[in-house]
Amino acid sequence: MINVLFFASLREQLGSEKLELSSDGITDVQSLLSALTKLHPNYNNAFNQSILVAVNQEMSTREQTLKPGDEVAFFPPVTGG
Amino acid sequence: MLSTQEKLRYSRQIMLNKVGEQGQLKLRNATVLIVGMGGLGNPVALYLAAAGVGKLLIADGDEVDITNLQRQVLFSQQDVKLNKADTASEKLQLNNPDVDIEVIDEMLDEELADYYIPNVDLVIDCTDNIAARYLLNKACLQHKKPLILGAATGFDGQQMVIDPNNQESACYQCVFPSAENAPVNNCQTIGILGPILAVIGGVQATEALKILMGLPVKTNRLALYDGLNQQWQYFNVKKQTSCTACGHSK
C-alpha cells in the first residue's frame, strides 16, 4: 500500500485528508498521480495545478520512485504575502 | 555598551539566557532588509523595530489600499494611497525612535538588490510572488546572506530559512525549481485571513532575531502551516545538485 496525505487548501479542495492506495502498478509519484486522478474527477483538476510533493517527509519530485509502505504528501505551494 | 535606557527598554528579552546584553548589542549592530511591506512585512518590521534591531531597510513600491487594512495592521484608513514603506517607517519610528530606518519606496529589482544586499546581515522575504522570491534567492546566494522566506494565502502559510554560508543549505529553487505552472494565487486572488500573516510573520521575525544573535536555526526544512486545522507539518529539503540557482549546474 501507499499512504497518501493531503495538506492545507488541497485537503479542503479534495475533501480528503488521507487515503491508502494499492501499490500495484505504482512505480513513482507520477504513476501515483495518474492512479489518483482515476479515483475522482476532482483529483484531476487539483493535480493539474502546481503542486508540491513530499515522500516520507522529504521534498521530492514527480520522478521520485515509490515502494510499498511509502508515505506521499501533496500540498499546494503558497506564494502570497 | 548598552545605555541604562536600553537596558530598561529591552529588559524583558535581555533577561532571557539566550539573549542577554550581548544579544541585545548584536541586535543593535545589525542591519536587516525587509522586502515587501504588506501583510507579512508589517508584523515582521514591527517586531524587529520593537526588539531594537539597529537598522531596518524596508522596501515596497506599492500604495496602501482600502482592501489592505483588514490585515496590514500598521496602516490606518488615513494612509490609503500613501506609499507603504514610507507609511510603515513613520509607524515604526513611533514605536522605536532609536531604530534607523531607510525607506526604499520602489519594488526591489535586481539592481537595487545588488546595491543593498551586500550591506545587510540578512534579508526577509515578505513579497507576494514567486518571481520576487527567485530574485531574492539569487541575490542572497550571490552575496552569501541568509534569507528568511515566508508566504501565506487563505488559511495556509509556508516558511523556510536559507543560509548560503552553509554549503549544504537548500535554496528556494531547490523547492520550486521552475516558475512553470506557478500559481498566481495571492491574497488578492484567493483571499487571506489576516492573523495567518501574523503567524508566519512571527516565525520569520523570530528566526531573524535568532540569526542576528548567533543562535542556531533550522535550514533545509519547509514548514507548512494549516490554520484551518491548526497544524504544522515539516518537510526536509535536500540541496539539489541539479538546482539551477545553487547546484553544480548553476
TrEMBL record, chain A:
Q: Which GO terms describe its molecular function?
A: nucleotide binding
Which GO CC terms are listed, alphabetically? molybdopterin adenylyltransferase complex
**What Gene3D superfamilies does the annotation carry?**
3.10.20.30
Q: In which pathway does it act?
A: Cofactor biosynthesis; molybdopterin biosynthesis
What does UniProt give as the signal peptide span? none
Keyword presence, Nucleotide-binding: yes
Query: Do you know which CDD domains this protein is assigned to?
Result: Ubl_MoaD
Keywords tagged on the record: Molybdenum cofactor biosynthesis, Nucleotide-binding
Does the UniProt entry include the keyword tRNA processing?
A: no
Q: Name one GO biological process term.
A: Mo-molybdopterin cofactor biosynthetic process
SUPFAM superfamilies cross-referenced by the UniProt entry: MoaD/ThiS (SSF54285)
Q: Which domain of life is it from?
A: Bacteria
| InterPro entries assigned | Beta-grasp_dom_sf (IPR012675), MoaD_arc-typ (IPR010038), MOCS2A (IPR044672), Mopterin_synth/thiamin_S_b (IPR016155), ThiS/MoaD-like (IPR003749)
What PANTHER family does its record include?
A: MOLYBDOPTERIN SYNTHASE SULFUR CARRIER SUBUNIT (PTHR33359)
Hey, which family's this protein in?
Belongs to the MoaD family.
Name the NCBIfam families for this protein: moaD (TIGR01682), moaD_arch (TIGR01687)
Protein name, UniProt field: Molybdopterin synthase sulfur carrier subunit
From TrEMBL, chain B:
Family stated for the protein in its record: Belongs to the HesA/MoeB/ThiF family.
Q: Which Gene3D superfamilies match?
A: NAD(P)-binding Rossmann-like Domain
Encoding gene, per UniProt annotation: thiF
Q: What is this protein called?
A: Molybdopterin biosynthesis protein MoeB
Q: Where is the THIF-type NAD/FAD binding fold domain?
A: 10-244
One Gene Ontology cellular component: cytosol
Read off the PANTHER family from this record.
Answer: SULFUR CARRIER PROTEIN THIS ADENYLYLTRANSFERASE (PTHR10953:SF240), UBIQUITIN-ACTIVATING ENZYME E1 (PTHR10953)
GO molecular function terms noted in the UniProt entry:
nucleotidyltransferase activity; sulfotransferase activity; thiosulfate-cyanide sulfurtransferase activity; ubiquitin-like modifier activating enzyme activity
Domain of life here? Bacteria
Q: Which Pfam families match?
A: ThiF
Q: Which residues does UniProt assign to the signal peptide?
A: none
Q: Which InterPro entries match?
A: ThiF/MoeB/HesA, ThiF_NAD_FAD-bd, Ubiquitin-activating_enz
Which SUPFAM superfamilies does the UniProt entry name for this protein? Activating enzymes of the ubiquitin-like proteins
